[in-house]
Design brief:
This protein has 4 domains: 84 residues, no CATH class; 80 residues, Immunoglobulin-like (Sandwich); 276 residues, no CATH class; 165 residues, no CATH class. It is built from 27 helices and 8 strands. Strand 4 and strand 5 form a beta hairpin. It is globular, with a radius of gyration of 27 Å.
Protein backbone atom coordinates (compact mmCIF):
# COMPACT_ATOMS: atom_id res chain seq x y z
CA UNK A 1 0.00 0.00 0.00
CA UNK A 2 2.81 2.39 0.95
CA UNK A 3 4.76 1.53 -2.21
CA UNK A 4 1.71 2.18 -4.42
CA UNK A 5 1.02 5.48 -2.61
CA UNK A 6 4.60 6.59 -3.14
CA UNK A 7 4.42 5.93 -6.87
CA UNK A 8 1.04 7.67 -7.09
CA UNK A 9 2.48 10.76 -5.40
CA UNK A 10 5.43 10.84 -7.80
CA UNK A 11 3.19 10.73 -10.87
CA UNK A 12 0.84 13.30 -9.35
CA UNK A 13 3.79 15.63 -9.00
CA UNK A 14 4.62 15.05 -12.66
CA UNK A 15 1.02 15.78 -13.64
CA UNK A 16 0.99 19.04 -11.67
CA UNK A 17 4.32 20.05 -13.20
CA UNK A 18 2.86 19.61 -16.69
CA UNK A 19 -0.22 21.78 -16.16
CA UNK A 20 1.65 24.99 -16.86
CA UNK A 21 3.47 23.41 -19.77
CA UNK A 22 0.27 22.23 -21.43
CA UNK A 23 -1.36 25.65 -21.28
CA UNK A 24 0.64 26.86 -24.26
CA UNK A 25 -0.74 26.42 -27.76
CA UNK A 26 2.26 27.66 -29.74
CA UNK A 27 4.46 25.54 -31.96
CA UNK A 28 8.20 25.30 -31.62
CA UNK A 29 8.49 26.31 -35.24
CA UNK A 30 6.92 29.59 -36.37
CA UNK A 31 6.98 30.84 -39.95
CA UNK A 32 7.42 34.49 -40.83
CA UNK A 33 7.44 36.11 -44.22
CA UNK A 34 11.27 36.00 -44.51
CA UNK A 35 12.55 33.46 -41.99
CA UNK A 36 11.62 30.56 -39.73
CA UNK A 37 12.64 30.15 -36.12
CA UNK A 38 13.08 26.61 -34.82
CA UNK A 39 13.48 25.71 -31.17
CA UNK A 40 15.12 22.48 -29.91
CA UNK A 41 12.91 19.42 -29.52
CA UNK A 42 13.89 19.12 -25.86
CA UNK A 43 14.23 22.41 -23.99
CA UNK A 44 15.91 22.28 -20.58
CA UNK A 45 15.88 25.38 -18.38
CA UNK A 46 19.19 27.07 -17.57
CA UNK A 47 21.24 24.83 -19.88
CA UNK A 48 23.15 26.39 -22.82
CA UNK A 49 21.31 25.46 -26.00
CA UNK A 50 20.61 27.11 -29.35
CA UNK A 51 17.88 28.27 -31.67
CA UNK A 52 17.96 27.79 -35.44
CA UNK A 53 17.08 30.42 -38.04
CA UNK A 54 15.89 29.17 -41.43
CA UNK A 55 15.85 31.85 -44.16
CA UNK A 56 13.21 31.40 -46.89
CA UNK A 57 15.26 33.08 -49.62
CA UNK A 58 18.90 33.87 -50.27
CA UNK A 59 18.67 37.67 -50.15
CA UNK A 60 20.44 37.68 -46.76
CA UNK A 61 23.53 36.15 -48.38
CA UNK A 62 24.28 39.48 -50.05
CA UNK A 63 25.12 41.02 -46.65
CA UNK A 64 28.45 40.58 -44.92
CA UNK A 65 26.70 40.44 -41.56
CA UNK A 66 23.20 40.72 -40.13
CA UNK A 67 22.16 42.11 -36.76
CA UNK A 68 19.86 39.69 -34.92
CA UNK A 69 18.19 40.84 -31.73
CA UNK A 70 17.13 37.97 -29.49
CA UNK A 71 15.16 39.20 -26.47
CA UNK A 72 17.47 41.69 -24.75
CA UNK A 73 20.70 40.70 -26.51
CA UNK A 74 22.10 41.48 -29.95
CA UNK A 75 24.15 39.13 -32.11
CA UNK A 76 25.93 39.85 -35.39
CA UNK A 77 25.91 36.81 -37.67
CA UNK A 78 27.61 36.12 -40.98
CA UNK A 79 24.99 34.51 -43.22
CA UNK A 80 26.78 31.91 -45.34
CA UNK A 81 23.84 29.51 -45.69
CA UNK A 82 20.09 29.35 -45.22
CA UNK A 83 20.32 27.74 -41.79
CA UNK A 84 22.09 29.43 -38.86
CA UNK A 85 22.34 28.24 -35.26
CA UNK A 86 22.59 30.83 -32.48
CA UNK A 87 23.45 30.00 -28.83
CA UNK A 88 20.65 30.63 -26.36
CA UNK A 89 19.78 29.77 -22.73
CA UNK A 90 16.10 29.06 -22.07
CA UNK A 91 14.47 30.18 -18.81
CA UNK A 92 11.37 28.44 -17.44
CA UNK A 93 8.13 29.46 -19.20
CA UNK A 94 9.04 32.41 -21.37
CA UNK A 95 9.28 33.50 -24.98
CA UNK A 96 11.93 33.99 -27.65
CA UNK A 97 11.59 37.27 -29.55
CA UNK A 98 13.72 37.65 -32.67
CA UNK A 99 14.07 40.89 -34.60
CA UNK A 100 15.80 40.93 -37.99
CA UNK A 101 15.64 44.00 -40.24
CA UNK A 102 12.77 45.48 -38.23
CA UNK A 103 10.75 42.30 -38.59
CA UNK A 104 9.69 40.82 -35.27
CA UNK A 105 8.79 37.29 -34.40
CA UNK A 106 7.90 35.89 -30.99
CA UNK A 107 7.58 32.26 -29.86
CA UNK A 108 6.47 31.04 -26.46
CA UNK A 109 8.14 27.98 -24.97
CA UNK A 110 7.96 25.77 -21.89
CA UNK A 111 11.35 24.66 -20.62
CA UNK A 112 11.67 21.53 -18.53
CA UNK A 113 12.91 22.45 -15.02
CA UNK A 114 16.43 21.08 -14.56
CA UNK A 115 15.54 19.44 -11.23
CA UNK A 116 13.19 17.05 -13.01
CA UNK A 117 16.16 15.49 -14.80
CA UNK A 118 17.03 13.53 -11.67
CA UNK A 119 13.61 11.78 -11.53
CA UNK A 120 14.10 9.06 -14.22
CA UNK A 121 17.31 7.52 -12.79
CA UNK A 122 16.19 8.13 -9.21
CA UNK A 123 12.85 6.36 -9.68
CA UNK A 124 14.53 3.49 -11.57
CA UNK A 125 17.17 3.00 -8.87
CA UNK A 126 14.70 3.21 -5.98
CA UNK A 127 12.26 0.80 -7.65
CA UNK A 128 15.04 -1.67 -8.40
CA UNK A 129 16.24 -1.65 -4.79
CA UNK A 130 12.75 -1.73 -3.23
CA UNK A 131 10.98 -4.22 -5.52
CA UNK A 132 14.13 -6.23 -6.43
CA UNK A 133 13.00 -6.40 -10.06
CA UNK A 134 15.15 -4.58 -12.58
CA UNK A 135 13.08 -4.82 -15.80
CA UNK A 136 10.06 -2.94 -14.47
CA UNK A 137 12.33 -0.47 -12.66
CA UNK A 138 14.20 0.44 -15.84
CA UNK A 139 10.97 0.63 -17.86
CA UNK A 140 9.31 2.96 -15.33
CA UNK A 141 12.48 5.08 -15.29
CA UNK A 142 12.36 5.32 -19.08
CA UNK A 143 8.65 6.14 -19.07
CA UNK A 144 9.18 8.86 -16.46
CA UNK A 145 11.85 10.45 -18.65
CA UNK A 146 9.85 10.35 -21.87
CA UNK A 147 6.73 11.58 -20.05
CA UNK A 148 8.68 14.58 -18.77
CA UNK A 149 9.94 15.33 -22.29
CA UNK A 150 6.55 15.09 -24.03
CA UNK A 151 4.64 16.57 -21.11
CA UNK A 152 6.39 19.88 -21.73
CA UNK A 153 5.56 19.89 -25.42
CA UNK A 154 2.41 21.31 -26.97
CA UNK A 155 0.22 18.21 -26.65
CA UNK A 156 -2.55 17.09 -24.32
CA UNK A 157 -1.61 15.06 -21.27
CA UNK A 158 -3.07 11.82 -22.65
CA UNK A 159 -1.30 12.38 -25.98
CA UNK A 160 1.91 12.90 -24.02
CA UNK A 161 1.39 9.53 -22.30
CA UNK A 162 1.00 7.69 -25.61
CA UNK A 163 3.96 9.47 -27.18
CA UNK A 164 6.06 8.76 -24.10
CA UNK A 165 5.31 5.03 -24.27
CA UNK A 166 6.07 4.84 -27.99
CA UNK A 167 9.26 6.90 -27.62
CA UNK A 168 10.72 4.27 -25.29
CA UNK A 169 10.95 1.82 -28.18
CA UNK A 170 11.05 3.94 -31.34
CA UNK A 171 13.55 6.48 -30.02
CA UNK A 172 15.60 5.48 -27.00
CA UNK A 173 15.84 1.70 -27.36
CA UNK A 174 16.59 2.04 -31.08
CA UNK A 175 19.06 4.82 -30.30
CA UNK A 176 20.87 2.63 -27.77
CA UNK A 177 21.07 -0.19 -30.31
CA UNK A 178 22.32 2.15 -33.04
CA UNK A 179 25.52 2.73 -31.08
CA UNK A 180 28.25 0.51 -32.57
CA UNK A 181 29.96 0.18 -29.20
CA UNK A 182 26.75 -1.13 -27.63
CA UNK A 183 26.18 -3.59 -30.45
CA UNK A 184 29.79 -4.77 -30.07
CA UNK A 185 29.22 -5.49 -26.37
CA UNK A 186 26.01 -7.41 -27.17
CA UNK A 187 27.71 -9.53 -29.85
CA UNK A 188 30.76 -10.09 -27.63
CA UNK A 189 28.52 -11.18 -24.73
CA UNK A 190 26.57 -13.55 -26.97
CA UNK A 191 29.75 -15.09 -28.35
CA UNK A 192 31.17 -15.54 -24.86
CA UNK A 193 27.90 -17.18 -23.79
CA UNK A 194 28.05 -19.49 -26.79
CA UNK A 195 31.68 -20.39 -26.07
CA UNK A 196 30.97 -21.08 -22.38
CA UNK A 197 28.02 -23.34 -23.21
CA UNK A 198 30.04 -25.22 -25.82
CA UNK A 199 33.06 -25.82 -23.58
CA UNK A 200 30.63 -26.98 -20.90
CA UNK A 201 28.98 -29.46 -23.30
CA UNK A 202 32.30 -30.83 -24.56
CA UNK A 203 33.53 -31.52 -21.02
CA UNK A 204 36.23 -28.87 -21.10
CA UNK A 205 34.77 -26.79 -18.28
CA UNK A 206 34.57 -29.83 -16.02
CA UNK A 207 38.20 -30.52 -16.86
CA UNK A 208 39.11 -26.95 -15.82
CA UNK A 209 37.18 -27.42 -12.58
CA UNK A 210 39.08 -30.64 -11.91
CA UNK A 211 42.42 -28.90 -12.53
CA UNK A 212 41.62 -25.78 -10.53
CA UNK A 213 40.28 -27.91 -7.70
CA UNK A 214 43.88 -28.80 -6.91
CA UNK A 215 44.48 -25.14 -6.09
CA UNK A 216 40.91 -24.15 -5.24
CA UNK A 217 39.95 -26.93 -2.85
CA UNK A 218 38.17 -24.75 -0.29
CA UNK A 219 35.91 -21.73 -0.23
CA UNK A 220 38.83 -19.44 0.60
CA UNK A 221 41.20 -20.78 -2.03
CA UNK A 222 38.42 -20.68 -4.66
CA UNK A 223 37.79 -17.01 -3.95
CA UNK A 224 41.53 -16.33 -3.93
CA UNK A 225 42.00 -17.93 -7.37
CA UNK A 226 39.10 -15.78 -8.64
CA UNK A 227 40.83 -12.67 -7.25
CA UNK A 228 44.14 -13.67 -8.88
CA UNK A 229 42.49 -14.18 -12.27
CA UNK A 230 40.72 -10.82 -11.93
CA UNK A 231 44.05 -9.09 -11.33
CA UNK A 232 45.86 -10.94 -14.14
CA UNK A 233 43.28 -10.04 -16.83
CA UNK A 234 43.99 -6.35 -16.39
CA UNK A 235 43.79 -4.93 -19.89
CA UNK A 236 39.99 -4.70 -20.30
CA UNK A 237 37.17 -4.68 -17.76
CA UNK A 238 34.57 -6.29 -20.05
CA UNK A 239 36.85 -9.20 -20.98
CA UNK A 240 37.86 -9.53 -17.33
CA UNK A 241 34.26 -9.70 -16.10
CA UNK A 242 32.92 -12.23 -18.58
CA UNK A 243 35.96 -14.51 -18.71
CA UNK A 244 36.61 -14.68 -14.95
CA UNK A 245 32.94 -14.97 -13.99
CA UNK A 246 32.14 -17.71 -16.47
CA UNK A 247 35.36 -19.64 -15.81
CA UNK A 248 35.20 -19.60 -12.02
CA UNK A 249 31.45 -20.07 -11.54
CA UNK A 250 31.51 -23.90 -11.74
CA UNK A 251 34.49 -23.95 -9.34
CA UNK A 252 32.96 -21.65 -6.74
CA UNK A 253 29.59 -23.43 -7.04
CA UNK A 254 31.28 -26.68 -6.13
CA UNK A 255 32.92 -24.99 -3.13
CA UNK A 256 29.62 -23.43 -1.95
CA UNK A 257 30.62 -19.82 -2.56
CA UNK A 258 27.49 -17.71 -3.00
CA UNK A 259 26.83 -16.20 -6.42
CA UNK A 260 26.66 -12.78 -4.73
CA UNK A 261 30.23 -13.21 -3.45
CA UNK A 262 31.48 -14.37 -6.84
CA UNK A 263 29.79 -11.41 -8.58
CA UNK A 264 31.36 -9.02 -6.04
CA UNK A 265 34.89 -10.35 -6.60
CA UNK A 266 34.41 -10.31 -10.39
CA UNK A 267 32.95 -6.78 -10.45
CA UNK A 268 35.45 -5.31 -7.99
CA UNK A 269 38.55 -6.63 -9.73
CA UNK A 270 37.49 -5.63 -13.27
CA UNK A 271 37.24 -1.82 -13.35
CA UNK A 272 39.63 -1.17 -10.40
CA UNK A 273 42.42 -3.15 -12.08
CA UNK A 274 41.72 -1.59 -15.49
CA UNK A 275 41.73 1.89 -13.91
CA UNK A 276 45.22 1.60 -12.37
CA UNK A 277 47.08 -0.63 -14.84
CA UNK A 278 49.20 1.28 -17.33
CA UNK A 279 48.38 -0.97 -20.29
CA UNK A 280 44.59 -1.03 -20.60
CA UNK A 281 41.75 -0.01 -22.87
CA UNK A 282 41.02 2.85 -20.46
CA UNK A 283 44.26 4.68 -21.19
CA UNK A 284 43.37 6.22 -24.56
CA UNK A 285 40.02 7.67 -23.53
CA UNK A 286 41.40 8.99 -20.25
CA UNK A 287 44.37 10.66 -21.93
CA UNK A 288 42.06 12.33 -24.46
CA UNK A 289 39.89 13.71 -21.64
CA UNK A 290 42.94 15.00 -19.76
CA UNK A 291 44.33 16.59 -22.91
CA UNK A 292 41.06 18.40 -23.64
CA UNK A 293 41.14 19.83 -20.12
CA UNK A 294 44.82 20.85 -20.07
CA UNK A 295 44.40 22.61 -23.43
CA UNK A 296 42.05 25.05 -21.70
CA UNK A 297 44.60 26.09 -19.06
CA UNK A 298 47.86 25.85 -21.08
CA UNK A 299 49.66 23.29 -18.92
CA UNK A 300 52.85 22.15 -20.66
CA UNK A 301 52.97 18.71 -19.03
CA UNK A 302 51.91 15.84 -21.29
CA UNK A 303 48.65 13.99 -20.58
CA UNK A 304 50.56 10.74 -20.09
CA UNK A 305 52.83 12.33 -17.51
CA UNK A 306 49.76 13.67 -15.67
CA UNK A 307 48.24 10.19 -15.79
CA UNK A 308 51.39 8.64 -14.26
CA UNK A 309 51.62 11.30 -11.54
CA UNK A 310 47.97 10.72 -10.62
CA UNK A 311 48.35 6.94 -10.18
CA UNK A 312 49.63 6.97 -6.54
CA UNK A 313 46.49 8.79 -5.36
CA UNK A 314 43.91 6.45 -6.94
CA UNK A 315 43.00 5.24 -3.48
CA UNK A 316 39.62 3.63 -4.15
CA UNK A 317 40.88 1.04 -6.72
CA UNK A 318 43.92 0.16 -4.57
CA UNK A 319 41.85 -0.11 -1.40
CA UNK A 320 39.14 -2.16 -3.14
CA UNK A 321 41.61 -4.79 -4.36
CA UNK A 322 43.17 -5.04 -0.89
CA UNK A 323 39.76 -5.15 0.82
CA UNK A 324 38.67 -8.13 -1.32
CA UNK A 325 41.91 -9.93 -0.42
CA UNK A 326 41.30 -9.36 3.31
CA UNK A 327 37.70 -10.57 3.04
CA UNK A 328 38.91 -13.73 1.29
CA UNK A 329 41.95 -14.52 3.45
CA UNK A 330 40.26 -13.83 6.79
CA UNK A 331 37.06 -15.66 5.72
CA UNK A 332 34.92 -12.87 7.14
CA UNK A 333 31.95 -10.94 5.76
CA UNK A 334 29.41 -8.44 7.05
CA UNK A 335 26.06 -6.99 6.04
CA UNK A 336 23.94 -8.65 3.33
CA UNK A 337 27.01 -10.49 1.98
CA UNK A 338 27.40 -12.32 5.30
CA UNK A 339 23.81 -13.57 5.05
CA UNK A 340 24.37 -14.67 1.44
CA UNK A 341 27.51 -16.61 2.38
CA UNK A 342 25.82 -18.12 5.43
CA UNK A 343 22.91 -19.26 3.24
CA UNK A 344 25.29 -20.82 0.70
CA UNK A 345 27.30 -22.68 3.37
CA UNK A 346 24.47 -23.88 5.60
CA UNK A 347 21.67 -24.44 3.07
CA UNK A 348 23.67 -25.07 -0.09
CA UNK A 349 21.53 -22.38 -1.76
CA UNK A 350 24.00 -20.49 -3.96
CA UNK A 351 21.62 -17.77 -5.09
CA UNK A 352 18.79 -15.87 -3.43
CA UNK A 353 16.48 -16.68 -6.34
CA UNK A 354 17.82 -20.24 -6.46
CA UNK A 355 16.13 -22.94 -8.52
CA UNK A 356 13.64 -21.36 -10.89
CA UNK A 357 15.82 -18.47 -12.06
CA UNK A 358 19.22 -20.16 -12.25
CA UNK A 359 21.13 -19.96 -15.49
CA UNK A 360 20.58 -22.76 -17.97
CA UNK A 361 24.29 -23.51 -18.13
CA UNK A 362 24.45 -24.86 -14.60
CA UNK A 363 21.63 -27.33 -15.28
CA UNK A 364 23.47 -29.04 -18.12
CA UNK A 365 24.22 -32.69 -17.47
CA UNK A 366 27.20 -34.07 -19.33
CA UNK A 367 27.17 -37.64 -20.56
CA UNK A 368 29.63 -39.88 -18.67
CA UNK A 369 31.07 -40.86 -22.05
CA UNK A 370 32.33 -37.30 -22.72
CA UNK A 371 35.99 -36.89 -21.70
CA UNK A 372 36.78 -34.06 -19.27
CA UNK A 373 39.90 -32.59 -20.89
CA UNK A 374 40.81 -29.21 -19.39
CA UNK A 375 42.42 -27.90 -22.59
CA UNK A 376 39.10 -28.07 -24.46
CA UNK A 377 38.07 -25.11 -22.29
CA UNK A 378 41.50 -23.72 -21.45
CA UNK A 379 42.54 -23.15 -25.07
CA UNK A 380 39.40 -21.14 -26.06
CA UNK A 381 39.67 -19.04 -22.87
CA UNK A 382 43.35 -18.33 -23.64
CA UNK A 383 42.32 -17.37 -27.17
CA UNK A 384 39.98 -14.74 -25.69
CA UNK A 385 42.63 -13.39 -23.33
CA UNK A 386 45.65 -13.32 -25.63
CA UNK A 387 43.53 -12.64 -28.71
CA UNK A 388 42.12 -9.50 -27.10
CA UNK A 389 45.62 -8.36 -26.15
CA UNK A 390 46.92 -9.02 -29.67
CA UNK A 391 43.90 -7.24 -31.18
CA UNK A 392 44.55 -4.20 -29.01
CA UNK A 393 48.14 -4.01 -30.19
CA UNK A 394 47.13 -4.52 -33.84
CA UNK A 395 44.38 -1.87 -33.87
CA UNK A 396 46.48 0.65 -31.95
CA UNK A 397 49.81 0.03 -33.67
CA UNK A 398 51.88 3.14 -34.31
CA UNK A 399 55.27 2.62 -35.96
CA UNK A 400 56.52 6.08 -35.01
CA UNK A 401 55.86 5.44 -31.32
CA UNK A 402 57.43 1.99 -31.45
CA UNK A 403 60.61 3.23 -33.13
CA UNK A 404 61.06 6.18 -30.74
CA UNK A 405 64.16 5.21 -28.73
CA UNK A 406 63.52 7.91 -26.11
CA UNK A 407 60.38 6.09 -24.85
CA UNK A 408 60.53 3.02 -22.60
CA UNK A 409 58.99 -0.29 -23.68
CA UNK A 410 56.15 -0.02 -21.14
CA UNK A 411 55.28 3.51 -22.27
CA UNK A 412 55.29 2.45 -25.92
CA UNK A 413 52.95 -0.43 -25.17
CA UNK A 414 50.71 1.82 -23.11
CA UNK A 415 50.43 4.41 -25.90
CA UNK A 416 49.65 1.72 -28.49
CA UNK A 417 46.95 0.00 -26.43
CA UNK A 418 45.58 3.39 -25.41
CA UNK A 419 45.02 4.22 -29.08
CA UNK A 420 43.47 0.83 -29.90
CA UNK A 421 39.91 -0.14 -30.75
CA UNK A 422 38.89 -2.34 -27.82
CA UNK A 423 35.56 -3.32 -29.36
CA UNK A 424 37.18 -4.77 -32.47
CA UNK A 425 39.73 -6.63 -30.35
CA UNK A 426 36.99 -8.15 -28.19
CA UNK A 427 34.91 -9.19 -31.21
CA UNK A 428 37.86 -10.77 -33.00
CA UNK A 429 38.99 -12.69 -29.93
CA UNK A 430 35.52 -13.95 -29.04
CA UNK A 431 34.64 -15.22 -32.54
CA UNK A 432 38.07 -16.86 -32.72
CA UNK A 433 37.46 -18.57 -29.38
CA UNK A 434 34.07 -19.88 -30.56
CA UNK A 435 35.63 -21.30 -33.75
CA UNK A 436 38.48 -22.90 -31.78
CA UNK A 437 36.04 -24.43 -29.26
CA UNK A 438 33.92 -25.80 -32.12
CA UNK A 439 36.99 -27.21 -33.87
CA UNK A 440 38.17 -28.92 -30.67
CA UNK A 441 34.71 -30.40 -30.06
CA UNK A 442 34.25 -31.77 -33.56
CA UNK A 443 37.90 -32.56 -34.24
CA UNK A 444 38.05 -34.95 -31.27
CA UNK A 445 34.60 -36.32 -32.21
CA UNK A 446 33.23 -35.30 -28.82
CA UNK A 447 30.25 -33.51 -30.38
CA UNK A 448 28.71 -33.77 -33.81
CA UNK A 449 28.19 -30.72 -36.01
CA UNK A 450 24.50 -30.59 -35.06
CA UNK A 451 25.19 -30.81 -31.32
CA UNK A 452 27.91 -28.18 -31.62
CA UNK A 453 25.57 -25.73 -33.36
CA UNK A 454 22.78 -26.50 -30.87
CA UNK A 455 25.17 -25.76 -27.99
CA UNK A 456 26.18 -22.45 -29.56
CA UNK A 457 22.56 -21.40 -30.12
CA UNK A 458 21.64 -22.36 -26.57
CA UNK A 459 24.58 -20.28 -25.35
CA UNK A 460 23.21 -17.28 -27.24
CA UNK A 461 19.84 -17.73 -25.52
CA UNK A 462 21.35 -17.70 -22.02
CA UNK A 463 22.51 -14.12 -22.61
CA UNK A 464 19.08 -12.75 -23.58
CA UNK A 465 18.04 -11.61 -20.09
CA UNK A 466 21.23 -9.67 -19.41
CA UNK A 467 21.22 -8.16 -22.90
CA UNK A 468 17.67 -6.87 -22.39
CA UNK A 469 18.75 -5.27 -19.11
CA UNK A 470 21.75 -3.71 -20.84
CA UNK A 471 19.61 -2.24 -23.61
CA UNK A 472 17.15 -0.70 -21.14
CA UNK A 473 20.03 0.66 -19.04
CA UNK A 474 21.65 2.25 -22.11
CA UNK A 475 18.31 3.78 -23.12
CA UNK A 476 17.93 5.24 -19.62
CA UNK A 477 21.45 6.65 -19.88
CA UNK A 478 20.42 8.39 -23.12
CA UNK A 479 17.40 9.85 -21.31
CA UNK A 480 19.63 11.24 -18.54
CA UNK A 481 21.90 12.72 -21.20
CA UNK A 482 19.01 14.47 -22.99
CA UNK A 483 17.65 15.79 -19.69
CA UNK A 484 21.13 16.89 -18.51
CA UNK A 485 20.99 14.95 -15.24
CA UNK A 486 24.74 15.27 -14.78
CA UNK A 487 24.50 19.04 -15.19
CA UNK A 488 21.86 19.18 -12.46
CA UNK A 489 24.05 17.28 -9.99
CA UNK A 490 27.12 19.30 -10.98
CA UNK A 491 25.34 22.64 -10.60
CA UNK A 492 24.17 21.80 -7.09
CA UNK A 493 27.58 20.79 -5.82
CA UNK A 494 29.66 23.31 -7.76
CA UNK A 495 27.56 26.15 -6.36
CA UNK A 496 29.20 25.45 -2.98
CA UNK A 497 32.48 27.27 -2.53
CA UNK A 498 35.05 24.54 -1.92
CA UNK A 499 38.55 25.19 -0.45
CA UNK A 500 41.29 23.84 -2.78
CA UNK A 501 42.23 21.06 -0.32
CA UNK A 502 38.63 19.82 -0.26
CA UNK A 503 38.27 19.86 -4.04
CA UNK A 504 39.49 16.25 -4.65
CA UNK A 505 37.04 14.91 -2.04
CA UNK A 506 34.25 17.04 -3.46
CA UNK A 507 35.13 15.80 -6.97
CA UNK A 508 35.21 12.17 -5.83
CA UNK A 509 31.69 12.45 -4.36
CA UNK A 510 30.38 14.35 -7.38
CA UNK A 511 31.86 11.78 -9.75
CA UNK A 512 30.36 8.91 -7.75
CA UNK A 513 26.90 10.54 -7.75
CA UNK A 514 26.94 11.14 -11.50
CA UNK A 515 28.16 7.60 -12.26
CA UNK A 516 25.52 6.18 -9.89
CA UNK A 517 22.76 8.20 -11.59
CA UNK A 518 23.85 7.57 -15.18
CA UNK A 519 25.37 4.09 -14.82
CA UNK A 520 28.45 5.07 -16.83
CA UNK A 521 31.97 5.63 -15.52
CA UNK A 522 33.29 6.65 -18.94
CA UNK A 523 30.40 9.06 -19.42
CA UNK A 524 31.15 10.57 -16.01
CA UNK A 525 34.79 11.10 -16.94
CA UNK A 526 33.74 12.70 -20.22
CA UNK A 527 31.62 15.21 -18.30
CA UNK A 528 33.91 16.01 -15.38
CA UNK A 529 37.44 16.07 -16.80
CA UNK A 530 36.88 19.17 -18.98
CA UNK A 531 34.65 20.71 -16.29
CA UNK A 532 36.57 20.14 -13.03
CA UNK A 533 40.25 20.14 -14.06
CA UNK A 534 40.33 23.74 -15.35
CA UNK A 535 38.25 24.76 -12.33
CA UNK A 536 40.73 23.12 -9.95
CA UNK A 537 43.66 24.98 -11.52
CA UNK A 538 41.84 28.32 -11.30
CA UNK A 539 40.66 27.64 -7.73
CA UNK A 540 44.18 26.82 -6.52
CA UNK A 541 45.67 29.98 -8.03
CA UNK A 542 42.84 32.15 -6.73
CA UNK A 543 43.68 30.80 -3.25
CA UNK A 544 47.29 31.97 -3.68
CA UNK A 545 48.86 28.54 -4.23
CA UNK A 546 52.13 28.18 -6.15
CA UNK A 547 52.31 26.08 -9.31
CA UNK A 548 53.83 23.07 -7.47
CA UNK A 549 51.03 23.08 -4.87
CA UNK A 550 48.43 23.59 -7.58
CA UNK A 551 49.78 20.63 -9.57
CA UNK A 552 49.50 18.39 -6.50
CA UNK A 553 45.80 19.23 -6.18
CA UNK A 554 45.47 18.85 -9.96
CA UNK A 555 46.95 15.31 -9.94
CA UNK A 556 44.73 14.21 -7.05
CA UNK A 557 41.65 15.67 -8.78
CA UNK A 558 42.47 13.65 -11.91
CA UNK A 559 42.53 10.53 -9.72
CA UNK A 560 39.36 11.52 -7.87
CA UNK A 561 37.31 11.78 -11.08
CA UNK A 562 38.27 8.29 -12.24
CA UNK A 563 38.09 6.65 -8.80
CA UNK A 564 34.75 8.27 -8.00
CA UNK A 565 33.28 7.14 -11.30
CA UNK A 566 34.37 3.56 -10.55
CA UNK A 567 32.73 3.75 -7.09
CA UNK A 568 29.46 5.10 -8.53
CA UNK A 569 29.57 2.45 -11.23
CA UNK A 570 29.94 -0.28 -8.58
CA UNK A 571 26.95 1.01 -6.61
CA UNK A 572 24.58 1.60 -9.53
CA UNK A 573 22.03 -1.05 -10.57
CA UNK A 574 21.85 0.53 -14.04
CA UNK A 575 25.59 0.23 -14.74
CA UNK A 576 26.57 -1.98 -17.67
CA UNK A 577 29.63 -3.46 -15.92
CA UNK A 578 27.54 -4.27 -12.84
CA UNK A 579 24.97 -5.96 -15.10
CA UNK A 580 27.70 -7.93 -16.90
CA UNK A 581 29.12 -9.08 -13.54
CA UNK A 582 25.70 -10.41 -12.54
CA UNK A 583 25.42 -12.07 -15.94
CA UNK A 584 28.83 -13.75 -15.85
CA UNK A 585 28.22 -15.02 -12.30
CA UNK A 586 24.58 -16.08 -12.91
CA UNK A 587 23.65 -13.94 -9.91
CA UNK A 588 20.37 -12.11 -9.39
CA UNK A 589 21.24 -8.57 -10.41
CA UNK A 590 19.56 -6.70 -7.56
CA UNK A 591 21.04 -9.10 -5.01
CA UNK A 592 24.47 -8.39 -6.46
CA UNK A 593 23.96 -4.64 -6.08
CA UNK A 594 22.49 -5.00 -2.58
CA UNK A 595 25.35 -7.14 -1.26
CA UNK A 596 28.10 -5.15 -2.96
CA UNK A 597 26.86 -1.71 -1.88
CA UNK A 598 28.01 -1.81 1.80
CA UNK A 599 31.48 -2.99 0.77
CA UNK A 600 31.87 -0.33 -1.92
CA UNK A 601 30.70 2.46 0.40
CA UNK A 602 33.02 1.26 3.19
CA UNK A 603 36.05 1.36 0.93
CA UNK A 604 34.92 4.67 -0.59
CA UNK A 605 34.70 6.25 2.87
CA UNK A 606 38.22 5.12 3.77
CA UNK A 607 39.46 6.40 0.41
CA UNK A 608 38.17 9.85 1.39
CA UNK A 609 39.18 9.94 5.06
CA UNK A 610 42.61 8.31 4.79
CA UNK A 611 43.32 9.07 1.14
CA UNK A 612 42.03 12.12 -0.69
CA UNK A 613 41.74 14.54 2.24
CA UNK A 614 45.22 14.09 3.75
CA UNK A 615 46.82 13.75 0.29
CA UNK A 616 45.46 17.17 -0.66
CA UNK A 617 47.25 18.59 2.39
CA UNK A 618 50.55 17.10 1.21
CA UNK A 619 50.68 13.74 3.03
CA UNK A 620 52.57 11.18 0.91
CA UNK A 621 50.78 8.24 -0.69
CA UNK A 622 53.57 6.02 0.67
CA UNK A 623 52.10 6.74 4.11
CA UNK A 624 48.40 6.87 3.21
CA UNK A 625 48.12 3.63 1.25
CA UNK A 626 49.63 1.42 4.03
CA UNK A 627 47.52 3.32 6.58
CA UNK A 628 44.39 2.64 4.52
CA UNK A 629 45.33 -1.05 4.23
CA UNK A 630 45.73 -1.33 8.02
CA UNK A 631 42.36 0.37 8.60
CA UNK A 632 40.57 -1.94 6.16
CA UNK A 633 42.23 -4.93 7.81
CA UNK A 634 40.91 -3.78 11.20
CA UNK A 635 37.41 -3.19 9.79
CA UNK A 636 37.26 -6.73 8.41
CA UNK A 637 38.71 -8.17 11.63
CA UNK A 638 36.42 -6.29 14.03
CA UNK A 639 33.19 -5.96 12.00
CA UNK A 640 33.33 -9.09 9.87
CA UNK A 641 31.89 -12.43 10.97
CA UNK A 642 33.27 -15.81 10.07
Amino acid sequence: MIKNSTLSILFLLLLLSFQTALASDTDKKTIHEDFTIELPKIIIADIPSEITLHFKNESHLKNDSILVQINESEVWIQPKQNQIKIPFVFKGNDAVQVIISQQTQKINYNAIPLWMSILPPLIAILMALVFKEVFSALFVGLFTGTLIIFGYQDVSFFTAIFKAIFAISDTYIIQSLADTGHISIIVFSMLIGAMVNLITQNGGMQGVVNKLSRFANSSRSGQFVTWILGVLIFFDDYANTLVVGNTMRPVTDKLKVSREKLAYIVDSTAAPVASIAMITTWIGIELSYIQSATAQINIDESPYSIFLNSLPTRFYPFFTLFFILMIVIMKKDFGPMYKAEQRAKSEGNLSEVDKQNNDEIENIEISPEIPTRWYNAGIPVMVVIFGTFAGLIYTGWNGNVWEDSSISFGTKLSHIIGASDSYLALLWSSISAVLVAAALSMGQKILSLKKTVDALVKGFKTMLTAILILILAWALADITKDLHTADFISKILIATEVPPEFLPTFTFILSALIAFSTGSSWGTMAILYPLILPASWALCHSAGMLDAESMNIFYITVSAILAGSVLGDHCSPISDTTILSSLASSCNHIEHVRTQLPYALTVGSIAIILGLLPAAYGVSSWILIPLGFITLFLIVKLVGKR
